[in-house]
């Protein structure tokens, strides 16, 4: 259930019945020919589909994240780590005050992952709370399915090209982009990173058939749903 379709009284009653909730995390950054909001679109959608049969509320996606390496690409917005930590702590406090104690952060952007250290510190101040960060694209089952489909999968490649991340009127290249020098890229400034990457796809094909993508998506939804159910302390 989406929090956007609930009122405060329904949230109050829901938290009394079940203290789980979901907060999707995304990012607004370059994704080559795909939407700048790809990470936010995917995290919010997979969280909603995974939580729906469980009846767990899903808060609106926190769309902005930490992506300093892509700031030379227009449209990319990156929060400072201090800003992001403060923001996430405020969000956690808000859902905690609402009565939720088991919180799943369904994360769609790798650059957000370091904030889990601050989340663990927050749990030290709220010992009755439990928070999981699920990097949905990095789940072992999803990654196994990706590698079985095409091991050349990366940022802004076919792996993130779903019907809901494509842009109307934009034609994707028909080819395979070769890998770049990862060590050189790691040591480069944002402007130099753009020069190294070019269009923004790290490597691999730009698109694969929709039947393959929808099958992968189903794996991701099931794996994300399991995180909401299993292994709570």
Description:
With 233 residues, this protein is mainly α. It has one domain (3-229): Rossmann fold, CATH 3.40.50. The chain has helices spanning 8-17, 38-51, 81-97, 116-125, 140-149, 182-186, 190-197, 210-229, and strands at residues 20-25, 102-107, 130-135, 176-177, 204-205. The strands form two sheets. It has a three-stranded parallel sheet with strand order 1-2-3, sandwiched between helices. A two-stranded antiparallel ribbon has the order 4-5. Strand 2, helix 4 and strand 3 (130-135) form a beta-alpha-beta unit. Helix 2 (38-51) crosses helix 8 (210-229). The two termini are 24 Å apart. The relative contact order is 0.17. The model has no long low-confidence stretch (mean pLDDT 97). Keywords: Hydrolase, Metal-binding, Zinc.
Q: Tell me the series of helices and strands, N- to C-terminal.
A: HEHHEHEHEHHEH
Calculate the terminal CA-CA distance, rounded to whole Å: 24 Å
Major sheet? 3 strands, parallel
What is the domain total for the residues? 1
The total count of helices amounts to 8
Number of strands: 5
Q: What is the arithmetic mean of pLDDT? A: 97
* Side-by-side strand order of the widest sheet: 1-2-3
What secondary-structure arrangement, pairings included, does this model have?
Blueprint: H1 8-17, E1 20-25, H2 38-51, H3 81-97, E2 102-107, H4 116-125, E3 130-135, H5 140-149, E4 176-177, H6 182-186, H7 190-197, E5 204-205, H8 210-229
Parallel strand pairs: 1-2, 2-3
Antiparallel strand pairs: 4-5
């Amino acid at each position: 259930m989406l929090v956007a379709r609930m009122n405060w009284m329904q949230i109050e009653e829901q938290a009394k019945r079940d203290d789980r909730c979901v907060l999707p995390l995304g990012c607004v950054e370059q994704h080559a020919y795909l939407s700048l909001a790809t990470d936010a679109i995917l995290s919010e959608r997979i969280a909603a589909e995974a939580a729906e049969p469980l009846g767990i509320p899903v808060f609106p996606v926190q769309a902005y994240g930490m992506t300093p390496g892509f700031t030379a690409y227009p449209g990319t917005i990156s929060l400072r780590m201090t800003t992001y930590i403060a923001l996430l702590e405020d969000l956690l406090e808000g859902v905690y005050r609402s009565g939720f104690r088991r919180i799943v952060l369904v994360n769609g952007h790798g650059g957000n992952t370091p904030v889990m250290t601050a989340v663990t510190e927050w749990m030290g101040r709220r010992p009755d709370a439990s928070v999981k960060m699920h990097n949905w694209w990095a789940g072992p089952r999803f990654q196994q399915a990706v590698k079985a489909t095409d091991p050349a999968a990366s940022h802004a490649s076919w792996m993130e090209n779903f019907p809901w991340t494509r842009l109307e009127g934009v034609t994707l290249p028909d080819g395979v982009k070769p890998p770049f020098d990862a060590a050189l890229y790691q040591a480069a400034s944002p402007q130099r990173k753009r020069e190294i990457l070019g269009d923004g796809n790290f490597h691999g094909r730009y698109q694969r058939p929709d039947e393959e993508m929808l099958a992968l998506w189903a794996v991701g939804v099931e794996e994300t749903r399991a995180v909401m159910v299993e292994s709570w302390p």
